[in-house]
């Protein structure tokens, strides 16, 4: 992959996130295309909505008012079928309060363990309207937590096509399955074709 | 109380909520002071925050940009000690997904059943800055749901000083304990003194 590491541009592209785990995953995807992603670790507004697209778009539009930058925000969530989509867009709050143990407790006795992680990336620049990219990975909730890597609910999510949880995988392996990598790949292809080519 | 039912003003005061149960409780409080509250049932923006004051204030400020009205918004949540404050500001989403049964499942085996309901009212008008009023009621999570009145987590919340859950009480009885009635009373006293007197 080394020969792809050409820097296509001098422009600076920021991923607005306080979550270093998320940043690392996105950085890994974009670096394969020769793009260096930068982290802007500031608080941003997230609205309460069951629609990740709406959350990401609102957030990006607010940030563009504050920062004169090309930027990306991402919103993601774990949607568990037997729990009517819970914890969904509120996954990080749920992780901080009831945690992995709380989710496993809620899943006790449930035979349907189907779940999906969804990621929505919103790109915005001072010159362009927001553009949205989505990635989904289907999988199942494990019976107990396994693995120490990743973050959030990674220790209890097993993607289809693997026996490992996300927390048992390296960033590279997780990215071969993950919702976030899919959304960032879709974004990157758009960015190379639509944005960088037009400069 | 009948003699208090004088209409102090011709101005129109709107409570922006889609929740009829909330509206009924607030209406009951304000009508005792002779103020007729009106309902404006429209969607409003709620940000994701652990701070109800921040959520209510942001929401009121957005609404004032859209509507040239005197208005109130309210944000409330159930904070359960043994669950690190969960479900907190996300109570209505949690109610819709895992529901009362989910909360009771998470509370299985917990000896600390302490919880509180908190309500934050934000008043805003085209002429004045947002003003915030808070009400809290302490209580406990019951072992099983009881009662059919109220809404949300009312069937599993027993306020201090009662043996009944909120869902076993009439609006008037619930208001003698409730977080929402306290916040609306505080608002009404301010409104009568600071706003109506100055007209």
TrEMBL record, chains A, B:
Example GO biological process: purine nucleoside triphosphate catabolic process
Cofactor binding comment, as recorded: Binds 1 Mg(2+) ion per subunit.
Gene3D superfamilies named among the record's database cross-references: 3.90.950.10
Superkingdom field: Archaea
Example GO molecular function: ribonucleoside triphosphate phosphatase activity
Cleaved signal peptide residues: none
First-tier enzyme category under EC: hydrolase
Requisite cofactors: Mg(2+)
Binding site for substrate: 17-22, 76, 151-154, 174, 179-180
This protein's GO CC annotations: cytoplasm
Active site per the UniProt annotation: 75 (proton acceptor)
InterPro entries, per database record: dITP/XTP_pyrophosphatase, ITPase-like_fam, RdgB/HAM1
Reaction it catalyzes: ITP + H2O = IMP + diphosphate + H(+); XTP + H2O = XMP + diphosphate + H(+); dITP + H2O = dIMP + diphosphate + H(+)
Sorted UniProt keywords: Hydrolase, Magnesium, Metal-binding, Nucleotide metabolism, Nucleotide-binding
Family indicated by similarity: Belongs to the HAM1 NTPase family.
Description of how the protein assembles with itself and partners: Homodimer.
Record function comment: Pyrophosphatase that catalyzes the hydrolysis of nucleoside triphosphates to their monophosphate derivatives, with a high preference for the non-canonical purine nucleotides XTP (xanthosine triphosphate), dITP (deoxyinosine triphosphate) and ITP. Seems to function as a house-cleaning enzyme that removes non-canonical purine nucleotides from the nucleotide pool, thus preventing their incorporation into DNA/RNA and avoiding chromosomal lesions.
Protein name listed in UniProt: dITP/XTP pyrophosphatase
Organism for this UniProt entry: Thermoproteota archaeon
Gene label: rdgB
């Amino acid at each position: 992959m080394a020969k792809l590491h050409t820097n296509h541009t001098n422009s600076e592209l920021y991923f607005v996130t306080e979550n270093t785990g998320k940043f690392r995953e996105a950085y890994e995807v974009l670096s394969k295309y020769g793009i260096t992603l930068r982290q802007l670790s500031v608080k941003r507004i997230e609205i309460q909505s069951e629609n990740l697209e709406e959350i990401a778009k609102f957030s990006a539009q607010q940030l563009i008012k504050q920062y004169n930058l090309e930027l990306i925000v991402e919103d993601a969530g774990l949607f568990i079928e037997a729990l009517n989509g819970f914890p969904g867009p509120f996954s990080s709050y749920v992780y901080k309060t009831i945690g992995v143990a709380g989710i496993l407790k809620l899943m006790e006795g449930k035979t349907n363990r189907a779940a999906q992680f969804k990621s929505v990336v919103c790109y915005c620049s001072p010159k362009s309207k927001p553009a949205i990219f989505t990635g989904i990975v289907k999988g199942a909730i494990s019976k107990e937590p396994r693995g120490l890597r990743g973050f959030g609910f990674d220790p209890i999510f097993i993607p289809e096509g693997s026996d490992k949880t996300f927390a048992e995988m390296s960033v590279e392996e997780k990215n071969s399955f993950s919702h976030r990598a899919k959304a960032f790949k879709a974004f990157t292809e758009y960015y190379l074709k639509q944005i960088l080519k037009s400069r």
